[in-house]
Amino acid sequence: MSPLQIEKIRGFRDFYPEDMEIEKFIFQKTEEAAEAFGFSRIDFPSLEYLDLYRIKSGDELLQQTYSFVDKGGREVTLIPEATPSTVRMVTARKDLQRPLRWYSFPKVWRYEEPQAGRYREHYQFNADIFGSDSPEADAEVIALASSILDGLGLSGVYEMRINSRKIMEEIIRNITDVEPFSVFSIIDRFHKISREEFTEQLKSAGIGEEGASMITDLCSGTRSVEEIERITGKGSDEIGRISKVVDLLRSYGVNSVRYDFSIVRGLSYYTGIVFEAYDRSGQFRAILGGGRYDSLASLMSGDNVPAVGFGMGDAVITLLIKREGIQIPRKKKLVYMCRVGEIDSGLMNRYARELREAGMNVTVELINRGLSSQLKYASSSGADYAIIFGERDLEKGQVTLRDMHSGSQESMDVDSIVPHLVSLMK
Ligand code: HAM
User: Fold this and answer.
1) Residues 32-58, mean pLDDT to the nearest whole number
2) How far is the CA of 56 from the centre of ligand 1 (A)?
3) Residue 4: inside a domain, yes or no?
4) Residue 344's domain spans which residues?
5) Ligand 1 lined by 268 (C-beta under 6 Å)
6) What is the CATH number of the domain that holds 140?
7) 250 CA distance to ligand 1 middle (Å)
């Protein structure tokens, strides 16, 4: 019988060690930034009741869920996003002092068309502030998003684009009687379809020729916030709030903020400011996105908890890191222990343990092959140093230390190997 070869499912990824190095770098830098802003990590199940997303995530997301009826007859789904689970956790614990600053890094699943930077399973970092409706909270989450991207080495590569659902609602109500939310779902597709198709979809939704072309013009290109003040009138409360957020962002050193009417976000629960970070070169889709959602908690539990936050997938970040040639720093030095002849494994393990305790990563040869194969293997594993334990040298109490980068070697007393390597690490 021929072996049964089962392929990986479309839209899903395997992570080999070299891929995981990038993922680890993303996790580490992102978590460091979140902790630096005083956010605490939370986690939640990968499976939730489908009803959780029926509350206000929107039809598009519901259609993308990996949902099924479990053996107990419950209608459940792999989580397509983190926000509803996070809000569930917030509303379940009224004893917690708000504002809460929470972050999470779950895997999420969406049955979307796979393309560059979009998969059916991805890691999604989320950061949210619960219990503050201030512009300061809006600015803080956007500043955190920027700080993460800068920490990953992407400053200058991205641009923060903002809009407000409140402002868009006002504008749309001035243009047409068509329900603003149904217009948002068309605007959300602006970057995925041609201009002509976009105008056609607006017209099919019942917006007249003139209104459709006004919305198309509005969505084309980005503007400074000063320009928006001119378009919408400085007196509007919401534009005043947006200007405040942009001012506050300057105090965080975030200056690359543009106003973009095409950003309305696909999910239904946003109520105020919405934002996305974009690759300036325009090669990839949104790097991250979020906004204010003040009514989701009260829809879920009756508890009124204003909230603002964002989600950032690992996929576009990985593509940007590769495109920009960002070097992933390896923190710990790797030492490879080679053996030539009959060497007591217990002895090697004791030195390995001392080196690990001194903060080094150590791998010990298992196979006992020829020295050149061992060195080749050590080099392909990324070893910085090799310690060669040779049977004859050890009889004289000696080992050889090889610098795997320069190829230089020196013989030394086996007992001085640990202090010697420790001094080299400094
Ligand atoms: P979202 O815009 O649907 O928002 O997703 C946030 C981010 O997740 C996107 O900007 C992108 O980086 C990544 N992402 C989304 N779908 C995919 C995919 N199929 N493949 C790879 N990456 C993807 C939300 O999910 C909101 N819950 C975010 C939020 C948190 N809003 C407030 N708090």
Assistant:
1) 97
2) 15
3) no
4) 334-425
5) no
6) 3.30.930.10
7) 25
